[in-house]
Amino acid sequence: MNGIDPGPDSHRRYNPLLDEWLLVSPQRAARPWQGAEEPAVPVALPVHDPGCYLCPGNSRAGGQCNPHYTQTWVFDNDFSALDAAERGHPAAQGERSMGREAQHKLLQYRVERGICRVICYTPQHNLSLSTLDTGALRAMVDCWCEQTRELGARDDIAHVQIFENRGEAMGCSNPHPHGQVWAQQHVPNAPARELANMQRYFDANGSDLLGDYLALELQCRERIVFEDSDFVVVVPWWAVWPFETLVLARRRVAHLTELDTAERDSLARTLQRLASLYDALFECPFPYSMGVHQMPFDGAAYDYGALHLHFYPPLLRSASVRKFMVGYELLAEPQRDVSAEQSAARLREVLSGTGA
User: Fold this and answer.
1) More confident of the two residues 125 and 324
2) Which residue has the higher pLDDT, 311 or 94?
């Protein structure tokens, strides 16, 4: 199958997962840059930082002391974004018990409960997804699966969101290798939109959207970065961030817990390889926000949905120039200057050079 080539003209591309359009402007890639340039983050970090609230044996901001952990370690976030019922103040407890919600159609609210946890990938302060060894990466994936199983089994949890923010550019306040899991009563906006559009596609076509999209990318082979027997990494047709990637499983599963032993091994290798590729692209610790999207935990089959991972990295031209979502992006619609095909080709070129 021949790929679809919009050429060098400005054009809009459709994102079927979010049911929105984005503007692609390849002709702007050659414009001179006079914007802000941010220095690359220093890479020299100690194995153990006595001032880090995530390192083993150190005290956290709330006064708790970390255990001397030797592998992946999880704890409840000391500053949770979601209020758990047993920790709520009396007024909030009363609102929960009454199920109280605002009645005005323009001033609506509902109390949201949940659990926020921090996942420390390793006790070593100076590592990252790209430098963790195979055992640590597999332990991290197993931890994701266990958190998914435990939290998804609760009657008061509908959605489990696993994610990582890496680098100050993405709001990460601590370089210690860690991610988070937020589990809550309702499905948040982005995954809810994905679910609605995947269901709409399934109702119209009788097949799952991401499965069909993966098959199309495997035919076109224009935007695939790399693949193995279990996972495919692609710069999606609708990518907004310069080097955004989508990690797709060849076998459709709804949750991390459904991955078999070989697929867990493969996912660990895929994450390490992709993170290493990002770091090699501009020879710097590449910032990103990464998230796992899985199906809700309400007992439904969700034949139209599939597990997948998003990587949203902001760097645009170098370690010191990044993409800002401002102006037109905030007020109109997403926009990018480099096409998804160009980004995928650049990543493949770097991958070939690294021999990974």
Assistant:
1) 125
2) 311
Do you know the residue count of the chain? 356
* Other CB atoms within 10 A of residue 204 CB: 9
Is a pLDDT exceeding 80 seen at residue 240?
Answer: yes
Domain 188-354 fold is: HIT family, subunit A (3.30.428)
Outline which parts of the chain fall under CATH 3.30.428.10: 73-184, 188-354
Half-sphere exposure of 166 (CA within 13 A, CB side): 27
Mean pLDDT of the chain: 90
Topology (CATH) of 73-184: HIT family, subunit A (3.30.428)
Two structure tokens written together for 211? 């499965």
Give me 15's structure tokens. Answer: 């994102």
Q: Structure pTM?
A: 0.91
Residue in 142, 125, 147, 126 with CA at minimum distance from that of residue 76: 147
Residues designated as active site: 178
Q: What is the CA radius of gyration of the chain?
A: 21
